[in-house]
Design a protein that fits this description.
There is one protein chain. Helices cover 10% and strands 65% of the residues. It has 2 helices and 8 strands. The chain has helices spanning 108-115, 122-131, and strands at residues 2-17, 20-36, 44-58, 61-73, 78-89, 98-107, 134-147, 150-164. Strands 1-2-3-4-5-6-7-8 form an 8-stranded antiparallel β-sheet, with helices on one face. The chain is globular, with a radius of gyration of 17 Å.
């Protein structure tokens, strides 16, 4: 992670067990942020970022959560604050990889713009560019089997308003 600029405050807690970080929580209130999380991607530039972030590092995966996370990009795209919980478990002992995502108040256009600056895999980046998602997810719960960037089976339920997705011509 290469932080080019930013100002504000961060208060963090870290849980360590046997000389290993197993969990971390941070309350953040930042402005004028420019950060590059992957040298191959454009920097993520935010006018403001506030809320709580938390992560747990599990033996077979991870958990990540936000509370009241509000983001305004440098282009004035605003995500007004939402909650998100993501769990990914790796394939272990004959049991396949699985994941779960729960969220509320997600602005899809803002998230697609931010996701394009994060290392989420080429397939997901290409899908976001092709489909240009928009709308508001009022609440959603997703579950999948397989890896996050190439799920094999997906279950979803939720409420979405003003959903837009660009159509993609069939290449066959």
């Amino acid at each position: 992670v290469d932080v080019a600029q930013g100002r504000g405050a961060v208060r963090a807690w870290v849980d360590i067990q046997r000389a290993r970080v197993i969990a971390a929580t941070a309350d953040i209130a930042l402005a004028d942020v420019s950060v590059r999380v992957d040298p191959k991607l454009a920097p993520l530039e935010l006018a403001s970022l506030s809320g709580r972030l938390g992560a747990k590092f599990l033996p077979d995966g991870f958990e990540f959560a936000t509370q009241d996370l509000a983001i305004t990009t440098a282009d004035a795209v605003r995500w007004p604050g939402g909650n998100l919980s993501l769990t990914q478990r790796d394939a272990v002992g004959g049991k396949g990889a699985t994941g779960e995502l729960s969220a509320d108040r997600l602005d899809l256009a803002a998230l697609a713009q931010i996701a394009g600056r994060l290392p989420l895999g080429a397939a997901l980046h290409q899908a976001l560019v092709r489909h240009r998602p928009g709308g508001l997810i009022e609440r959603v719960k997703l579950g999948w089997q397989g890896s996050l960037d190439k799920p094999e089976h997906v279950q979803a339920q939720g409420r979405v308003t003003r959903l837009t997705l660009a159509s993609v011509p069939d290449d066959s």
